[in-house]
C-alpha cells in the first residue's frame, strides 16, 4: 500500500507512491474541505460492486485502484486487501462522488478529516 494523506487547513491531499501510481493512473488527488460531504470508515462489504473501470486497475482480491463508474457515480479507489476502508463522500459537481482509500487507521483518519472540514459527525 502506498497512500500518503496530508490534512492541512483547507484540503486533504492524497498522494500515491510506488506502483500505485501506475495502477491508478494518478499521482495526487486533492479534496477541498467544502467538497467533503462526509468521511467515515466502512467495511469493504458495505461498498458497491464496481461496474465500469475508466482509468485504473481491478485485480479481484488483490487490488482496486483508479477511477470507476458505478451506479451513476464517479469513484476513486486505491485499496489493496483491507477489510476496512476510508470513504470520503463528495457532493455532486466534484470530480469524484466517492473516494475509497486503504489507510492504517480509517476510523481516526475519518475523524481527523471530519474535524478539519467542520463536519458535525465524521
The geometry reads as: globular
Q: Determine the mean pLDDT.
A: 85
| Helix residue percentage | 10-25%
- Our measurement of the CA-to-CA distance between the termini, rounded to an integer number of angstroms, reads 24 Å
Low-confidence stretches: none
Helix segment count?
2
Q: How big a fraction of the residues is strand?
A: over 45%
| Count of structural domains | 1
Q: List how many beta strands DSSP finds.
A: 9
Strand order of the largest sheet: 4-8-9-7-6-5
Rg (CA only): 13 Å
| Largest sheet entry | 6 strands, mixed
Task: State the oligomer.
Answer: single chain
Order of helices and strands: EEHEEEEEEEH
Label the structural class: mainly beta
Nutshell version of this structure?
By secondary structure, this protein is mainly beta. Helix content is 15%, strand content 45%.
Question: Topology of this structure?
Answer:
Blueprint: E1 3-7, E2 11-16, H1 19-24, E3 28-32, E4 38-43, E5 52-59, E6 63-70, E7 73-79, E8 84-89, E9 98-101, H2 106-117
Parallel strand pairs: 7-9
Antiparallel strand pairs: 1-2, 2-3, 4-8, 5-6, 6-7, 8-9
Amino acid at each position: 500500500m502506498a497512500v500518503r494523506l496530508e490534512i492541512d487547513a483547507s484540503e486533504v491531499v492524497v498522494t500515491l507512491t510506488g506502483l500505485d501510481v501506475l495502477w491508478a493512473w494518478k499521482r495526487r488527488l486533492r479534496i477541498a474541505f467544502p467538497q467533503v460531504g462526509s468521511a467515515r470508515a466502512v467495511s469493504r462489504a458495505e461498498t458497491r460492486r464496481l461496474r465500469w473501470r475508466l482509468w485504473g486497475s481491478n485485480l479481484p482480491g488483490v487490488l482496486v485502484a483508479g477511477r470507476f463508474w458505478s451506479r451513476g457515480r464517479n469513484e476513486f479507489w486505491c485499496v489493496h486487501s483491507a477489510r476496512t476502508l476510508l470513504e470520503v463522500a463528495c457532493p455532486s459537481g466534484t470530480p469524484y462522488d466517492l473516494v475509497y482509500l486503504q489507510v492504517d487507521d480509517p476510523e481516526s483518519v475519518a475523524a481527523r478529516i471530519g474535524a478539519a472540514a467542520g463536519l458535525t459527525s465524521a
